[in-house]
Amino acid sequence: MNNIIKHIKGDKTIWAIVGMLAIFSFLPVYSASTNLVYVVSNGTTGGHLLKHAVLLTLGFIIIYATHRIPYRYFSGLSAIMIPVVLLLLAYTLLQPRNQDAIMAARWISVPFTGFKFQTSTLAGVILMVYIARYFARNKDEKIEFKQSIVPLWLPVLAVIGLIFPANFSTAAILFVMVIMLAFFGNYPVKYILSIGALGIIMIMLFILTVKAFPDSFKNSRVQTWINRVDNFSDEDSKENYQSHKAQVAIYAGHTFGRGSGKSIQKNFLPQSSSDFIFAIIVEEYGLLGAFAVITLYLLLLFRIVIVATKTKTIFGSLVVIGVGIPIVFQAFTNIAVAVGLFPVTGQPLPLISAGGTSIWMTCFAIGIVLSVSAAKDEDVDKVRQELDSENPLDVLHEAIG
After folding, report:
1. Nearest one of 377, 382, 347, 374 to 274, comparing CA atoms
2. H or E element: which one contains 109?
3. HSE toward the beta carbon, residue 309, CA cutoff 13 A
4. 39 with 51: CB under 8 angstroms?
């Protein structure tokens, strides 16, 4: 153990924040799992707690392994992985679906393991690293829109387009993060505004197309999104059951909460251990518990910004922003849904909600941030040399050899 601690590098505050969120997560996950056990008849509370412990343990192994890799390698590897994630997304979207596999268009099953992998989470991290690579390689050039269509916007359109039909919220968050990274990458503002307007137009056209030809888009969830927005605007709608129960739980928490494990609404609130776990946290730990969780995410955001500003390469700064900010953005999206500010999105609370792929990909992104924060001054020249290389396979060969 001492040997492992000795080799831990990077921003110690980020390590501490991630550790505190992960340790705290055991309490609400264990409490909320009673919904799965006694309402859904799925497993045991001890089994769900053990599963969560295994997932987090593997997640910290991912963080440790990733942060030990010099971050310059992620630049070339992102270019190699873009075609891979496109194939995975296409395979995921085109899977046959039936009544017993409603979410098949979002997950793929890993053969012989029984494990399901959400490909969009991996695609999001890879895409953000790829975009950071693009802007770092073109930092000294005036970027014209025509020149950026194929190397930049074509991969963005392909990745988001394949995620969009089955997971609108993830696609929307990813699109916002792409626009943000383009802004920090000094992409001309007039082009950013044009891309944003074009994205809105394409969304509307897709929705109209799906409504006109519903049988051709059985894997899409457009009607679900429309219903969620309509129900969100109608407070009396019976379809607002989840939101109502979440707000009841939050109201019942008051200042100090009911106490650990004493939530009542966890027995009635679907997805209480994942999408709506923040409501359970507030009910059991009150406003003080909510404030503590929110403070940790704000501190994480602060440290991410610090790492980005201290990094001595453009790629390092952009990749920290690209993979780090979405974690905090997702957290506050989840919180906004729980308190009734947003319609239901299905976004988990990073490092706290029960899950699988989402935990691991969050840990992968944190590992990249820590890798950047751990970089030494002598690594700067190597990063710049890699970004000047025309062949990303050189990086793969160096990493393997």
Report:
1. 347
2. strand 108-110
3. 6
4. no
Which letter does DSSP use for residue 262 in this model?
A: -
CA dihedral 318, 381, 368, 137 (to 10 degrees): 40
Residue among 86, 252, 249, 49 at smallest CA distance from 162: 86
Residue 109 pairs in a beta bridge with 116
How many domains does one find in the chain?
1
Would you list the DSSP string of 123-151?
HHHHHHHHHHHHHHHTTTS---HHHHIII
Instruction: Classify residue 316: in a domain, yes or no.
Output: yes
**What's the Rg (C-alpha) of the chain?**
21
The answer to the question of residue 235 being in a domain is: no
Phi, psi of 108 (to 5 degrees): -125, 145
Q: Is residue 225 part of a domain?
A: no
Distances (CA, A) of 41 to 35, 140, 246, 351: 8, 59, 21, 25
Beta-carbon contacts of 399 under 8 Å, excluding residues fewer than 6 positions away, are: 69, 73, 77
Q: What integer pLDDT is reported at residue 112 of this predicted model?
A: 60
Q: Is the pTM of this model over 0.85?
A: yes
Q: Which residue has the higher pLDDT, 341 or 151?
A: 151
- 198-207, 250-259, 317-326, 387-396 — which is least confidently predicted? 387-396
Residue whose C-alpha is closest to residue 250's, from 275, 274, 286: 286
Distance separating alpha carbons of residues 88 and 332, to the nearest angstrom: 28
Query: How far apart (Å, rounded) are the C-alpha atoms in residues 142 and 380?
Result: 23
Which amino acid appears at position 230 of this protein?
A: D
- Alpha-helical segments (H) within 96-221: 119-137, 145-148, 154-163, 168-184, 189-212
In terms of residue numbers, what domain contains 355? 2-218+240-400
Does residue 88 form part of some domain?
A: yes
Contacts for 179 with CB less than 8 Å, ≥ 6 apart: 192, 195, 196
Q: Is residue 47 helix, strand or coil?
A: helix
